[in-house]
Amino acid sequence: MDENLERIEVGLLLQGIYAQYGYDFRNYAYPVIRRRVWHRIQAERLETISGLQEKVLHDPSCVKRLVSDFSIAVTEMFRDPHFFLSLRQRILPRLHAWEAIRVWVAGCSSGEEVYSVSILLREEGLANRTEIYATDMNPDGLQKAQNGVYSLDVMQTYTSNYLRSGGRHVFSDYYTASSRGAAFRPELIEHVVFAQHNLATDRAFHTFHLILCRNVLIYFNGVLQKEVFDLFHQSLVTGGFLGLGDAESISISDIRYNYERADPLQKWYRRIK
Question: What is the Cα–Cα distance from 197 to 209, expressed in whole angstroms?
């Protein structure tokens, strides 16, 4: 297919999804969208982007599957352990200054990062005065996060990540193993609010002392990244902290002048004005 024509068809598909359903993927990184569009075309046993557009506009179950494709994120508990060790050693001690703490895990996917943050907060004595807001645009991911059940196959990796991030206890104490998988203790999400929120279209809804949005912005183009950084700036209190993934940086946005690096090696930024 002609590359320019393909871009036009993908653009029409995304515009149709936005007009009909309100999901806005128009400023997502094109290579990611293109790959996942063609994956869905094959999965639906179609042949063209136009065929997918027709099905999406007339079959809400198809758009649900496509949205799920677009929102797939690679995640695991305590992913990049040095980042979480920095959170434990450099960031959380500075949150003790606040009597009540609000944390936003934006783009929480299936919840692995939510449980990771919750465990650290418990171990550092902050859990009882912290409320975590865990948001994602995909309701299926949010449901999995609320259920808190993960495959036993990944527990060895998660245990290793936990220990390397400075874990203080036996990791298996945080979950119960069964034929269903590893079910994490319900008390870990006692102070967690799960809610649907689309970073591409939704506005600020609270103020926070700590925001984590890791490996989400890499799926957005530069225009949308700048809009999301503005959203985070509106949502973060002065003195609060923003944590990003290794491949992400606030340097593309004008708000960078309002932040300082909170760790020279990890992507932690502190709002100074």
Answer: 18
- Portions of the chain given CATH number 3.40.50.150: 81-271
Instruction: Count CB neighbours of 12 within 10 A.
Output: 13
Task: Determine the CATH number of domain 81-271.
Answer: 3.40.50.150
3-state secondary structure of 78: coil
Sign of the torsion formed by the C-alpha atoms of 217, 218, 220 and 222:
positive
One pLDDT digit (tens) per residue for the chain, 273 residues: 688 999 999 999 999 999 999 889 999 999 999 999 999 999 999 999 999 999 999 999 999 999 889 887 778 999 999 999 999 999 999 999 999 999 999 999 999 999 999 999 999 999 999 999 999 999 989 999 999 999 999 999 999 999 999 999 999 999 999 999 999 999 999 999 999 999 999 999 999 999 999 999 999 999 999 999 999 999 999 999 999 999 999 998 999 999 999 999 999 999 999
Please state, in angstroms and rounded to a whole number, the distance separating the CA atoms of residues 16 and 221.
Answer: 19
Q: State how far the alpha carbon of 196 is from the alpha carbons of 74, 77, 158, 215, in Å.
A: 19, 21, 26, 18
